[in-house]
Design brief:
By secondary structure, this protein is mainly β. It has no helices and seven strands. The chain has a four-stranded antiparallel beta sheet with strand order 4-3-6-7, with no helix packed on it. Strands 1-2-5 form a three-stranded antiparallel beta sheet, with no helix packed on it. Strand 3 and strand 4 form a beta hairpin.
Length: 103
């Protein structure tokens, strides 16, 4: 399993700003290794965000996203103490899910 995501969520009024740093190699499938062989594609395909267990965002990604991607978004109706969960699935079927409390 990949390294844990760094999730920071801060409430301001009736919404929260969420920042997520994901650890992932994100290979495009177009680079070659030292021996000249193509490095297979390996990238996050889907990212999902949940607020207290309810899905509030889903993103479809592809090979053009950078290594160790950073994601920032805001969520209406969030308040301090609520739980924000982030999960992803890559093209190899590997998964990661982490959760943070909004401050």
């Amino acid at each position: 399993m990949a390294d844990p995501m760094r999730i920071r969520a801060q409430a301001t009024g009736d919404k929260a700003m969420v920042r997520v740093l994901m650890a992932h190699e994100m290979e495009t499938g177009q680079r070659k290794d030292g021996a000249g062989k193509i490095i297979p594609a390996w990238y996050i395909q889907e990212v999902t965000a949940q607020l207290n267990g309810k899905t509030v965002m889903t993103a479809q990604w592809g090979p053009s996203i950078s290594k160790n991607p950073f994601l920032q978004f805001s969520v209406k109706g969030a308040k301090a103490g609520d739980k924000i969960g982030i999960s992803w699935v890559d093209n190899r079927g590997e998964k990661r899910a982490d959760e943070a409390t909004i401050s």
